[in-house]
Amino acid sequence: MTSDVITTLNYFVAPPDGSRPYTDVSGNNATGKLIRNWGEDPHDMQVEDVRGKEELYKLDNAGFQYGREAPKHTSFLNDDEIEREYYPESIDLIKRVTGATKVVIFDHTIRRRRPGESDDNPQKRQPVSRAHVDQTPAASIARVHRHLPPTEAPSLLRRRFQIINLWRPISHAAVDWPLALCDFRSVDFEKDLMPVALIYPDREGETFGVRYNPNHQWKYLKAMTPEEFVLIKCSDSIQDGSVARLTPHTAFQDPNTPEGAPPRESIELRTLVFYD
């Protein structure tokens, strides 16, 4: 029995005045500063449960790839411990799965859904219920320059590189607000993706908002456990059409979630991935 669901996914809609879309990370309603100037466009979409068919979805064809390997670090309560213990084992995992020769983790985010609370500071990050891609190609290149020494970055950028997120549930299965991924083969790269400036106090990043397209094929792995993970491709320097370039993703409310299921908790690592 499959567990495909019909649910509402939030897509991106551009500012009506035609201005450049932005999200101001430090903006808040108290100061009157806009946090963002774009809107959401909800649509009912089918999300297919691919449990039992995980092998069909790879980083190169779909833009994401599931796997099973229990982490040695399991507490996920202390950032220093996560960096000391979980980072090295995750670098090893990504190298083994992808064949990459160098992996650099540049940050991690722990999300714990807290019903009724606002997601207003980095310690209270909640699942993102909005279709998005973490980096545009320009932002990806900027990340390499930001996180690697100027002596290394140019030579690394001459070879294949990717930004890949390693996502997994922590403490219990992600039955509540699971993660949906959009198969890149159903994405129109030119029409569906809109760059959104991410404005920090000291710099600017850029993400992709995802416009509605009825052809999008959304997938999830029902009740993913902490022993399971998914690699999410956010960017790939190969852009000739031979491989998936990225995968839009979003948390979604599964209407079949049993009452009393514990709120979702997850961790994602964001990594620069290089090949010889």
UniProtKB/TrEMBL annotation:
This is Methyltransferase. Residues 111-136 are annotated as: Disordered. InterPro entries: AsaB-like. Belongs to the asaB hydroxylase/desaturase family. GO terms for molecular function: oxidoreductase activity. It comes from Suillus plorans. The lineage of its organism: Eukaryota, Fungi, Dikarya, Basidiomycota, Agaricomycotina. NCBIfam families: CmcJ_NvfI_EfuI (NF041278).
